[in-house]
Amino acid sequence: MKLHGYFRSSAAYRVRIALNLKGLTAEHLPHHLRKGEQCAPTYLAINPQGLVPTLEDDSGTALTQSLAIIEWLDETHPNPPLLPEDPLRRAKVRAFALAIACDIHPVQNLKVLARLRQLGLAEEKVTEWAAWANREGLSACEALVRGEQGPFCFGDKPTIADLCLVPQLANARRFGVDVAAFPRLLEAEAAAKEMKAFTDAAPDRQGDAE
Ligand SMILES: N[C@@H](CCC(=O)N[C@@H](CS)C(=O)NCC(=O)O)C(=O)O
């Protein structure tokens, strides 16, 4: 397998954690997002959205969208499972993961921030926008898991919720958000960071880290 990513990409970080939890290895192919390498024609041929990650399986089939990739990995390598068995619990875990992947991350993504700058927004306001998106979204995430048994987001094992949470907290900190406001999320993050699968996937541990 080949994983197209970037050390600081939180969406690629989710997939790196999933690969590690499953004990799978992939060749890591970095694309420097700040240099626009995700828009090279050769990369657009495998991911027309010009976003990372893309996972190429051993037959060369390209899969895009981190959560679709993670669910494919979970279906093809069921142990350890990344979703609970019970359908109601699965829906809750997916809702949490989607709150991050669909509602927080996209509005603070690189190309959205670049567009805000092009439209004349000052750098300070751009950062304020990204911090707001994280603060507002993570407050809702905190409420979603407040009543859940820990230490992970949903119980005593990591799920796709934790795979989305840990990279998003890293983004929130990068934009200056005071994450102390989210104690239940920090509890889940601390449990995750006890696991090598999570620490090995961290941005500063990647070959392309700056
Ligand atoms: N929903 C997509 C999001 C992918 C995404 O936005 N990736 C970012 C990095 S975290 C990216 O490639 N950004 C490049 C850009 O904005 O030009 C997924 O989960 O895979």
Largest beta-sheet details = 4 strands, mixed
CATH architecture group name of the largest domain: Up-down Bundle
How many distinct folded domains? 2
* Cα radius of gyration in angstroms: 17 Å
Coarse structural class: alpha+beta
Runs in which pLDDT lies below 50 for 5 or more consecutive residues are none
Spatial sequence of strands, sheet with the most strands: 2-1-3-4
What percent of residues adopt helix (DSSP H or I)? 40-55%
Counting DSSP H or I runs of 4 or more residues, the number of helices is 9
Residue share in β-strands: 5-15%
Short description:
About 50% of the residues lie in helices and about 5% in strands. It has 9 helices and 4 strands; from the N terminus they run βαβαββααααααα.
